[in-house]
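Sanity check

After download, print the first record. It should look like this:
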Amino acid sequence: MSKNRWQCSHEVLDPKQVHYCRYIGLEALLALARPHIGTGDERDFIHEDEPQFIAAHQMSEIGFALHIQTLGQLIGKIEEEDYPSALKLVERLIVWCGVHGNVMSALNTMEPKKFFEFRDALAPASGAESEQYRIIEILSGIEPEDAYASIRGMDFTYRAFLDRKPEEGENKPKARWWTLRLTELSEGPTVRKAIKAKLQKLGIGREELFGDTPPAQSSIALLAQGLVGYDKAFRSLRSVHMMVAARQIGTRAGTGHTDGVPYLKSAVDKAQFFPELWDRD
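Expected structure tokens:
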């Protein structure tokens, strides 16, 4: 191979130059799109649709990483009281909610009967194990004792749902989904804590935020209204996940230890990032 021709097959002027394929780590990225089993070894694809299933979840995790980075920036802007910049970041998060939903919707191009040709090989793994997804929830505003989900008729707070230890037996957790990192993050700054503190400092409540009085036009009020939009956008993402699951698995249980669609629906109904901003009860 020519010293100026890279493994991606492109010939370049200078082997040290910045080049698209190397810049984004394309070769390494594509090499990861394989099924990995418990020992860390790869296995062959079981079905022609399995590569799409893996790629959709890998793309989601890449998007989640940027989502998390943006949440960190947003918390900083709120603490600095740079509310116009914070609102721009909220708008970015809303866009990313749409991206996440579109990636998940791609799974609806699989026929359910074909999905079941390789689904059993995934158990007991579940997308609910995604730590990055949980980090997004915590940094946005869900707190450990918030109502979160129901499983088989039992209601759980957020931490209680994630913090059950692995056990033998059907419908029992095979992995503890709560991690030390989640504990640390839940005790630190979040968007919910940051905006709540600033509104309390200014003495602005829901009535002022969403009314016709001048405070509703202030930069912090516009930010709070934007955060309600973000909360709704993430709820829409949860709904997309629920609808994809309903099409693919119907009334069957999830590959983890949830009861599948009913669990996902309960999270849509209960989980909120900023209840203080838009609950009218």
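If your output differs, re-run the checksum step. Summary of this record's structure: The domain at 50-278 is CATH 1.20.58.480 (Methane Monooxygenase Hydroxylase; Chain G, domain 1).
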